[in-house]
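Title: Prediction job returns without error message
Component: structure pipeline
Severity: low
Priority: P3
Assignee: unassigned

Description:
Job completed but the reporter wants confirmation the result is attached to the right record. Sequence as submitted:
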Amino acid sequence: MKPIAECSRVGIFSMILLSLMIVLNLGTFFAARDVTVARASSPVSPASCAAPEYRQFDFWAGDWDVFDVGSPIQVARARVDRILDGCVLREDYRGSNGHHGESFTIYDASRKVWHQSWVTNRGELLVIEGTMEGDTMVLGGEDHAKGALVRGEWKRESGNVRETAATSTDGGKTWKPWFDLVFRRHKD
């Protein structure tokens, strides 16, 4: 049998060890809580879309009346807004024939390309990508529904924006005009 003094020392040692473990765990808990609170209350970092490349396509932003080139008849109204802290251009296109589409366009700095996704009320999806070439934004891709390559170009023209598009069904050897539009500032 163990003497009482030895049992007491073991009991006291166990209690001290247990108390020390509780204090250390509480310290870790409160330190982690303080970090979480600090992260939650810290200010939001500024948008990462401040580089000049993100402003290359801003000339398209605005409220526009859209016409086929050479025609006085308005074919659509388009609003192109900078959203998400200026990182994305959102186009809301409303054709006079009921065709309604929206596009989201962003500069992908990791790949150094512009990306646009276009969707419509007719179930259409078009994904195109490209770069600024001189004073013209050139985006291209594949229209899977039509089985054709697509190339679109946007450029400033006397205070307006001209958008032209062409398609190719032979892998890009030849191109046929698809549309030629001019975006003029909407007048109230």
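Comment from assignee: result matches the submitted record. The chain has a mean pLDDT of 84.
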